[in-house]
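Late entry, zinc ion complex.
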Amino acid sequence: MIELLFIGTGGSVATEERDNTSFLLLSQDTAALIDCPGSVIQKLKKAQIDPRSVHSIIVTHIHPDHIYGLPSLIHSLMLEDCVIEILGSERSVNFCAELLDLFNLRSEKVKCHVNFIPVVPGEDYRISPSLTCAFYKIPHSPSSMAVGFHKIEEGLDLLYSGDTPRFPELLQRVQNIDYLIHDCSAPSRIFEEYPSLYAMHTDSLALGKIAQEAGVKHLVPCHFFGEVDFSIKEIEDEIRENFRGELTIPEDFSRIPLTKKT
Ligand SMILES: [Zn+2]
Ligand SMILES: [Zn+2]
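Prediction complete; structure with ligand written out below:
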């Protein structure tokens, strides 16, 4: 059993319906949290997930909309005897350590112990008996990493490329992957209006193209901008201009069961 639980699907500006993008990868032996904005504890409780089941936090990069909830999460767990590993680029994990130090959240009175793991791109990290992950450097910011997960028994592969410009070089390395979760910040007309976005994010037209070229079997777009006006139907239509695989456009609290694709 493995599933995704989105606890946020929006860009850096949250809306009434969508908080900043963050999700959990839930398997029989662990819960891995990918990025840490907002009140994670409240969302986990809403989704009836025990916060103590989170053993790993993957930090994709250190922009505020991806990490500002970390001190609050550790503060909420300060009376729990638990160990959490934070994995990300060296820049990301050092920043997270400094962020916790600002709130004195690595002192002895905090029972929840945090280990920081600066990752080496391309190396495998086992985050539970059933799950490994590997990291890939991507553009967007100096701290940015995409993360791939491998579910050992099923041989299932998933890649998450969080905030990232169009970067087909990454997908060439993971041809025909089962699941791709990817930045899809806005439709192409918004990028045409604000061309500086091309260096930072991916539009829905470009995402459909690169996912189709890479043979992605199931595409899950996210990180939808809240500060510009467009509909999710517009996103879907643009992706479908090129992409013929399975497509799920998540909402906050969407659960997506993952199955190995044939
Ligand atoms: Zn972001
Ligand atoms: Zn960012």
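Residues 61, 63, 140-141, 163 surround zinc ion (ligand 2) (CB under 6 Å). Will revisit in the morning.
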